[in-house]
Amino acid sequence: MNRCVRRIVFALAGWLFLTTGTLSAQVGFSLPFFNNATPGTIINVPLKVTGFNNIASVQFVLSWDPQTVGFFSIDNFNLPGLDAAEFNSTQALSEGILRFAWVSSNLQIGTTVPNETLIFRLRLQVIGPINAGSAVTITQSPPTSFEVNQINNGVLQSLDMSQVQLTNGFVAVGYTVGTTELSDHSEWPVSIVPNPFSETTQIFFENEEGADIQMFITDVAGQIIVEKNIISPVSSQHGMEIASSQLREKGMYFLILRTDKRSCVRPLFLF
Fold first, then answer.
1. Under CATH, which number does the domain 190-270 receive?
2. Rounded Cα–Cα distance for residues 122 and 107 (Å)
3. Cα 216 to Cα 119, 146, 253, distances in angstroms
4. pTM, to two decimals
5. Separation of alpha carbons 264 and 154, rounded Å
6. pLDDT tens digits for 209-266?
């Protein structure tokens, strides 16, 4: 049992019991995208929450590519009892790993804050060159597992990553990326089928400009796993197959498509 959960269970022994399950109001954590980030500047990365109702404790890891952005500081704490002591930054500079564990000061009913509350701010310095990019992800890394513990009618429910809505961020150095799925009226429709996938997936997109395309697949830390240049002198449709053997391990990746005029990012899941 990890430190965060152990503290809560001992404190609540005798009137709460531990269970698992998904609550009706889904808990969510979100990080933003940063476009056209300038080398040498500091970017302020707010972590916002939704469905943060009767929360007894939270713990997770924030991860990024330390070759693209460097740890600067943490501030703007907006949960009761939250301060710098709830963070372990010993791996932040060298590995891009920041560990976080917080326990509510009210263990009878937990802590509730409004939707879109900024609970803390991560400050990163852009150190990578133009055209570099890094995902900023909410994840887990041993010995820190992802856990949210929520009190519901006197019951302590433990939620893992599959039961919480997570929106990860991205830092694009000197360029712009799209952040949402594109509609039929959008600039760049992209289809990934199936997604998630276990063996192979097909990627389809149109190139109406007739411009050459750079295609990247990165891991959640922003490291490039697959890179391909697509020569496309005329307007055309493109399709390609990505096999699981091309990726390092199961988990989340990012597909990045870029021309000299536009770019987009799509999540890609291997299971």
1. 2.60.40.10
2. 26
3. 32, 28, 10
4. 0.65
5. 45
6. 666 788 889 887 778 899 888 876 555 677 889 999 999 888 778 888 887 777 778 8
